[in-house]
Amino acid sequence: MSYEIAYCKWIWRHNKRLFFTYLLTAVTLLLLPQLLFPYQPNRNSFPPLYWSCMAMLLINLALAMLMPLYQFRYLMNKRSVDLFYPLPIKKTRLFWLNYVIGAACICIPNVLFLFSFLWTSEINAYIPTYLVLTAMFALMSLALYASITFFVMKCNSFLDACFVAVAVVLVQLLLVTSCIALLNNVIQEISHSGGSINEFFQMSYIECFSPIMIGFKWLIDLPEAANDYMQNGGNILALWLKEADFNSFQPIVYLFVTVGFSIVACRAYGKRKGEDSEQKTTSKLVYPMFTSLITCLLLLYDSLSASFFWVAVVLFFVMNSLAERKLTIRPKMLGFLFYGAILFLVSNLMIETNGFGRIREFYEPEDIQSVLVELHFYEDKENDFDASYETSYLLMDEYQEDQKLIEQVTALHRQATKESENGEINYMNGTVMVNYVLKNGRTAYRYFSISEREEATVAQLKQYLKQQKYSQGEIIIDEPDGEAE
Amino acid sequence: MIEFQHVYKFLGKKQVLQDVNLTIPDGSVFGLIGENGAGKSTLLRLLSGIYQCDGGKLLLDGERIYDNRSCKQQILFISDDPFQFFHSTLADMKRFYQDWYDIDEALYYRYLKLFQLDEYKPLHNFSKGMKRQAFILLGLAAAPRYLLLDEAFDGLDPIMRRHFKQIIADQIADKKMSVIISSHDLKELQDFCDSFAMLENGTIHTSGLMNEALSDIHHIQMAFLSEVKPEWFKELDIITMQINSRVVKLYVKGDEARIRTYLESLKPLVLELLPVQLEEMFIQEVIHNKEAVHHEL
């Protein structure tokens, strides 16, 4: 144990100046907003300690990124490996010592923040909220710290380690935003049939995979909760937890991520060879994985945007050149450019040509065997303020061969499409989904918006559907409450 | 006692050490000699626990060295380009080493005075030679059981070399320390190494006691009445042979008396057996091996 204590003492001796500078910066950033709070002109605009909270979040995140680089920088240099590896201490012990010291440095601003409660008497009601926030920030930063540490263990040079620290954060942000974008699209489709995203899962489950995103979200939600508290009273913690869409899944995820990555980081450290330092980083978990993830997510995030496409291509080139330490065009770069260009061109071509002409293809009533219609429209109740917008659905449960219905639907389809082409739809009155089964055996699916101009046709269609009792039933959704009746 | 048993080491895809079998006795100065890239530094890094063997065993008193706390405590490695912390002084480095090794303060200050180094001057302001002195000083003051010195004499002036040799000799006598040293300065090694190993292309070419090895190789100059024929010397274990008409220079391995008897039977006009230096031996062995490889090709 004496060696471990000796090592900690040495760390302290060697870093005390840096530590005091860091402490001074942290104290200034955390306490200054609190000291200035009483002099703030509009004191009700933000809850007390809000800017200290923001500073703490930024310090936490910055440290989570920097501490793995600082604590394990000796692995990236041959000469320092020559000094540290022969020391009479087990490799795993040395890892845990460095790791725990790094983690402790991350937790220090949180402890300072807790102590700073003593400074401001105006925050009594906020104390439980700040306690939870502090604990969550610490846990979130530790999860980020653990994951970056693991990937740093796979790097052989300091430049690669810096790349990894930035890439981990970037990938989390991209992954979460891409997932949300994807799910929003999927849910949007589901919602036409009366579904709601909350029926499937909470967005906070996904958001929590990006600590930076969730950290800022928590903070942004705090003034809302504070405002609610000032107006209606109650428990600020409960208000904030509700506002922030907080669930117990988040701390559990961070805890698992922290523990899991800490263990695998230790194993990676144990397997790391002394001769690896200053060599080319060859682990597939560094450049290949992060380059692919970042660029592919960028491409998928918005395949229609030329700027996204070029940013992805340039990033792919830069990251590969960084990995190879050479500015040369490689076959995989050309491959990425090729496949990216195909994705970009096909996506844009689909838009420009209206699905290669498919969605501008109309069918004559005599060519249609049967139709299945789904009406989705809004009704404005001018006299009822609380339910000014209602969304209702008319659903058919099976294909109908009624010729009159087919004629009405095709007429509506042509009219709506024509208006859409002329850009005449200013106000959307609703949407129609039509599934056609043609006599030649083909099927077609159309989804189009309807405006006020087609109101008469829609009313006829609606009336017709109700009379014929084709529909499963009318579902009315009141927008303000979002609950189905 | 340190034992290498069929040790293999790869750096990337390149095989740096191949089937190394070596025993390093305690209380001695062991020299590692070899060309650049022969594997001397790799061997020292294996010994210090920086590298792990890819095959075979590397044992200290029967225990594996790699990641073994008790073994590593007995070994201190001073690399050819030692690392110093940012803006650190010799005093800072002494405090660092003090946490891990038993640094003898009295010895440290005695050597500090002898080498006339400023312990509070940042090490990055030291010259290459002074920096080397500083780290060797730390190694000697720590007096580990095994002190590993990589390219130890590079950048040291002759007076310093003399001081170091004397101090190392004292330490071996007083503290039973063993020094394993690699160097290109073979003249220096010859003077104070008890035993040595010559590495070539990752294998141990020759090893053993310095005196025995040197006494086993003979530098012979001979002159004859008639032109010298190479086949006259077929009976001998020749390392290199240089024939210039009626004069021949030979480097021969073997028993001196037997060689002298054989050569006298050839009735030379002049026969001289000259003492062989380590550097000569190294050069002749390297030339011999390269020629052998050339012939094979």
Order of helices and strands of chain A: HHHHHHHHHHHHHEEHEEHEE
By DSSP, the count of extended strands of chain B is: 14
Termini of chain A, distance in Å? Answer: 68 Å
Low-pLDDT residue spans of chain A: 191-195, 383-390, 471-485
Q: Note the gap between the termini of chain B.
A: 40 Å
The biggest beta sheet of chain A reads: 6 strands, antiparallel
Radius of gyration of chain B: 22 Å
Q: Which two chains share the most extensive interface?
A: A-B, 24 and 27 residues
How many helices of chain A does DSSP assign?
Answer: 15
Low-pLDDT residue intervals, each spanning 5 or more residues of chain B: none
- Largest sheet descriptor of chain B: 6 strands, mixed
How would you sum up the global shape of chain A? flat
Percent helix of chain B: 25-40%
CATH superfamily of the largest domain in chain B: P-loop containing nucleotide triphosphate hydrolases
* Residue fraction in strands of chain A: 5-15%
The gist of it:
The complex is a heterodimer of chains A (485) and B (297). With 485 residues, chain A is an alpha+beta fold.
Description:
The complex is a heterodimer of chains A (485) and B (297). Chain A is α+β, with helices and mostly antiparallel strands and 485 residues long. Chain A has helices spanning 2-36, 50-71, 78-84, 91-115, 127-153, 158-191, 203-207, 211-232, 236-243, 249-271, 287-301, 306-324, 331-352, 403-422, 455-468, and strands spanning 368-380, 389-396, 428-438, 443-451, 471-478, 483-484. In chain A, a hairpin with a 4-residue loop joins strand 5 (471-478) and strand 6 (483-484). Chain B is α/β, with parallel strands linked by helices and 297 residues long. Chain B has two domains: 2-212, P-loop containing nucleotide triphosphate hydrolases (Rossmann fold), CATH 3.40.50; 217-296, Alpha-Beta Plaits (2-Layer Sandwich), CATH 3.30.70. Chain B contains ten helices and 14 strands. Chain B has helices spanning 40-48, 69-72, 90-100, 105-115, 128-142, 158-175, 186-192, 210-215, 256-264, 278-296; strands at residues 2-11, 14-24, 29-34, 55-60, 63-64, 75-78, 146-150, 178-182, 195-200, 203-209, 217-223, 237-244, 247-253, 270-274. In chain B, a hairpin with a 2-residue loop joins strand 12 (237-244) and strand 13. The mean pLDDT of chain B is 86.
